[in-house]
Design goal:
Helix content: 25-40%
CATH architecture of the largest domain: 2-Layer Sandwich
CATH class of the largest domain: Alpha Beta
Order of helices and strands: HEHHEEHEHEEEEEHHHHHEEE
Distance between the termini: 63 Å
Number of strands: 12
Number of domains: 2
Oligomer: single chain
Strand content: 15-25%
CATH topology of the largest domain: Beta Polymerase, domain 2
Length: 272
């Protein structure tokens, strides 16, 4: 005979955790307890959240907090993001500094978790001390997305080359070119632009590719990946229209690097 009330919800969640599940939706709870009204079930979930057993990571979607994270009452987004995006029905990939962590290319684990999706915008989410930043692109090309295993399953992340160009593309939103270049410097050993499909050079805007190439070549001194990127630019006849290194900053009066078509309108300092 099934136990009813708050305890039954608690036991059900314990069973989910024993089976290796780390997330569930309000719809799952309603389906499991059809004789209970939604209000009562929400109240039971609220009480469990207050005890630090679960956390609402999105409206109608919950993560179970493992014992090792009970002291902070939160679970790292990397452990539930794949399930959350499946719940939302959105393609996605982990990006920027959050992707760079997988390649050992971040000085510290950032307090912002970066996700890129398509099919309309999503509001950013703040949970405890971690903020999930969502950025939207017109489309996500699966050729440049790879899967990485975590303790709870698999997540989708940008390949090293897309991670590099995204760091440059979105530098204005993630701490500036100095920070982007610092992580790009650590990421360089993983870059293989000579092996990436040529569609990469139409998928990523030419100014972004050339800004990345300039940084690798002239600032960070990584001639290998810079040379492969340069060959790809010319092999695919990418636009060489002059563009500033730092977007949103005046460019007149600065020198232009003719090789990359980059107006060098800022200086770069990286953290060693």
């Amino acid at each position: 005979m099934q136990i009813t009330g708050k305890k039954s919800v608690s036991l059900w969640i314990e069973e989910l955790q024993r089976r290796g599940r780390i997330t569930f939706s309000l719809q799952d709870v309603n389906s499991q307890f059809p004789s209970h009204n939604t209000s009562a079930l929400r109240n039971a979930l609220t009480r469990l959240a207050a005890k630090g057993r679960i956390v609402s990571v999105w409206k109608g979607f919950y993560a179970i907090i493992p014992v090792e994270y009970s002291s902070i009452g939160m679970i790292p987004p990397v452990l539930y993001i794949d399930n959350l995006m499946a719940y939302l029905g959105r393609p996605y990939y982990i990006s920027l500094f959050s992707a760079a962590v997988f390649y050992g290319a971040a000085h510290q684990r950032p307090q912002e978790f970066n996700v890129i999706t398509s099919s309309g915008s999503l509001r950013s989410s703040q949970k405890k001390d971690v903020r999930i930043n969502f950025r939207t692109v017109k489309e996500i090309n699966p050729d440049f997305i790879i899967e990485k295993k975590t303790r709870t399953g698999y997540v989708k992340i940008s390949c090293p080359e897309l991670t590099a160009t995204d760091l440059v593309r979105y530098e204005g939103e993630t701490g500036g070119l100095n920070r982007a270049a610092t992580v790009l410097n650590e990421l360089a050993e993983h870059l293989q632009f000579g092996k990436i499909p040529d569609s990469f050079f139409s998928y990523v805007p030419s100014p972004v590719i050339r800004r990345t190439g300039y940084l690798l070549d002239k600032v960070l001194d990584h001639p290998g990946p810079a040379g492969e990127l340069y060959e790809g630019i010319h092999r695919n006849e990418c636009s060489m229209r002059v563009t500033p290194l730092k977007t949103g900053k005046p460019a007149p009066g600065y020198i232009t690097d003719k090789k990359w078509g980059i107006i060098v309108n800022t200086s770069i300092e990286i953290d060693e």
